[in-house]
Specification:
The complex is a heterodimer of chains A (268) and B (461). Chain A has 268 residues and is mainly α. Chain A has eleven helices and no strands. The two termini of chain A are 43 Å apart. A six-stranded mixed beta sheet of chain B has the order 6-7-8-3-9-10, sandwiched between helices. Chain B has a five-stranded antiparallel beta sheet with strand order 13-12-11-14-20. In chain B, strand 9 and strand 10 form a beta hairpin. In chain B, helix 2 packs across helix 3 and helix 2 runs parallel beside helix 4. The chains are: A mainly alpha (268), B alpha+beta (461).
Chain lengths: 268, 461
Amino acid sequence: MKKVLAKCYLWLLLALLYAPLFFIAVFSFTESRVLGNWTGFSTKLYSNLFTGGMNGGASLISAVENTLLIALISAAFSTLLGTVAAIGIHNLKGRKRQTMQFLNNIPMINPDIITGVSLFLLFVFLGVSQGYLTVILAHITFCTPYVVLSVLPKLSQMNPNIYEAALDLGATPAQALRKVLIPELRPGMVSGFILAFTMSLDDFAVTFFTRGTIGLDTLSTYIYTDARKGGLTPELRPLMTLIFLIVLILLVVINIRQEKANKTVKSR
Amino acid sequence: MAKDYIIDIQHLSKSFGGVKVLDDINFYVRRGEFVTLLGPSGCGKTTLLRQIAGFIAPDEGKILLDGKDISGIPPYQRPLNTVFQRYALFPHLDVYDNIAFGLKLQKLPAKEIEARVKKMLKMVSMTDYEDRSVESLSGGQQQRVAIARALVNYPKVLLLDEPLAALDLKMRKDMQLELKEIHRKMGITFIYVTHDQEEALTLSDTIVVLNEGRIQQIGTPTDIYNEPVNCFVADFIGESNILKGRMIRDRRVAFIKQEFDCVDEGFGENVPVDVVVRPEDIYFTTDPAKCQFKAKVNSCTFKGVHYEMWVDTESGYELMIQDYDPYPVGTEVMLYIDPDDIQVMHKERTRNVFDAKVTDSGHVEMLGQSWDCEVPDGFAAGDEAVAEVRFEDVELLDHQEDGKIAGEVHFLLYKGDHYHLTILTEDGDHIWVDTNDIWDKGDLVGVDIPAKGIKLIRRND
């Protein structure tokens, strides 16, 4: 009996968690403007989304483009910076290393709104005109710690002598980095990249404060503005459904990769 | 003179965080020689090897390769290669690419690379494994690949850092023989680091015994085994009975309260010494004429090839004996030792000597503490002096906080009727203690010295 109750509780919890997503996914297949009205099955919203055949379609598409572009660029730079930083932190000893790891964790638990406001103030203080560049810089800032966090375990799993072995066999430090270290760290870097990409993708607060006044919109800021204008554009429903699916797939991929990595570690 | 030496190490020193890991290391390696750096963990042997490889820069001193100082050259430009402790193979490359790594960096023609890699694979009996991923190999196979990967570059010297430590006993023995065979075939100089004395005795042409950052002894395996220069070497290499003794005169030594003939000369007369007798060199006899001393067997353990017995001599000492024939516990036995088998060593120290400063008529300051002391006449407050403390006058206490100084048992030696301990204090000083109590290495102890145990001597006396 207890067991049944426990199970029910779990399912109820999951149902509550996923209900909104499910709701949106279901209502993406109907044409009604108002969410909650079922006016018969249709894929028109999907086709509208892809052909841009709706009100303000162009700005929605450009917001999606901006989002993806910003996410890609900042994830790429974060991966680069984060990997280098992780190697540096890994080579520190004792107290210094703990301190650096701690400092790396703070931006992650720091509320986005504070990161956003402080970056906004910083850019104003430095007189940087806000736009694409500042958004990308801001995204790199808050994504990098996640890359560091996913590369560090790879470094500690690695045989510490591998880098020295490469030097010993005649590789210069740069060659050793390229031919030995990077291939060894690649799984961590890929996970870090994916993580950074998704973090950048769904960011609102930081983007909102650093995008300036040039009218730059990412998906999240677009939706915010859109919702304030009076009701969500119905095409956002299929878009959100798709984004959810993509993120879901990415998550599954990350998990499978980690599973595999754990297995190879165990079999050693 | 230096021509014959492929590696010549001169006055090498290295400290980490104020602790001297290597202290004035000097030795040379002849071309084609198999040299082993042997010592317990933490003795500095790996640091020394890593300096030769170039991963650590020495604080002082020179490393000459073919007469040229290489201390300033980065590891990737040194014509030396290393076999690492845990192999350090590149997991993302297969066996072939691991071995070819160095040659590809040299940009050799593909044909030559292939020929050399194949030759190496054959040498380490790993032909047909070239496409295997290194993670699918056993420890022994990974070790072979690691050796091949280093040797394929034809280094002037091959450095091996405890390469067999991770293998099981049987595999280790096999690999020892193979390594020796590879060394013979290739004619390359090997510098081998290990803490396993048996491995060192089996493999080496020359053994360099290290302890606490200093070279204790350099010699051939037989030299080191038969003629250890100090208690540390005698204790570390093989089993041994180490006993307090006194050199009566040339070729005559006293220990376990009686005199023996020996072959050592030049110690002087009536000089305190340490005596080493290997357990296999104490013989049983039934002939009363041959018998030098009598003892009673108190334990007998089968060790595979031989029996290991502990006997109590009539004079009150405990000795270890190894023999092919067992004697039951309780048996009265007659024993003798050949003069040849008695190794006499200079005593490294006969008492503790500390710097001290007289503070008043009843106190001195030494080892960072103030001590009660019977200050002799003629010393005034503020005088610098030397304090001597006999080993047996130092008291060890179970709890660190009960002693005046806290320390740790750093090294211990059984000397037949007592233990000789080296205590490392928290400030890094050494205090030597003779005691009948049983302590283990690493025990935390409190140290106290009673007032009458401290003997003050004027400096420059």
